[in-house]
Amino acid sequence: MKAIVEFCASNALSESEEVIKALEEDPDLDVDVVEYGCLGNCGECFAEPYALVNGDYVSATTPDKLLAEIKRKIKEDEDSLEKDFPF
Hints:
CATH class: Alpha Beta
Structural class: alpha+beta
Low-confidence stretches: none
């Protein structure tokens, strides 16, 4: 299943651009990266880098940590799907 990672364009100004680029360039990830004008998480958006991974809120204190958290969440979702549908 292709993961969907959504970013707020306003939050992208807070160094999330490097996370977006890393996700798009990672050959080991099956991911669609989408950037919206606003995701409606203004308080969180102001406080730290964040993204929605398959609709779930993921945040971290730095862009590098956010990238790691996004990858962890994608792996967690893949593992859960394989457990539910072991074909």
